[in-house]
Amino acid sequence: xxxxxxxxxxxxxxxxxxxxxxxxxxxxxxxxxxxxxxxxxxxxxxxxxxxxxxxxxxxxxxxxxxxxxxxxxxxxxxxxxxxxxxxxxxxxxxxxxxxxx
Length: 101
Description:
The chain has helices at residues 2-38, 40-68, 74-85. The termini are far apart. The protein is an all-alpha fold.
């Protein structure tokens, strides 16, 4: 019950502060977030982190597949094969046909 009360109090506080700030403050925050996201240094850091994550995920996949062996259901194995065919760099679309780049 304490957690529910804390959540509701935070929700109410956020609503009150948000309505007092108004639309122009929202637009200002939105513009700042867009500028940060379009910063080349931020984009390069995000891409480096994503690339490093893919490398670690590949290493983890090989470690797990060596230990699990043939105990993986065929449906899961097929899904993993389809993901591997996309390439290490993540090129290609996802299940919904959108680009991952």
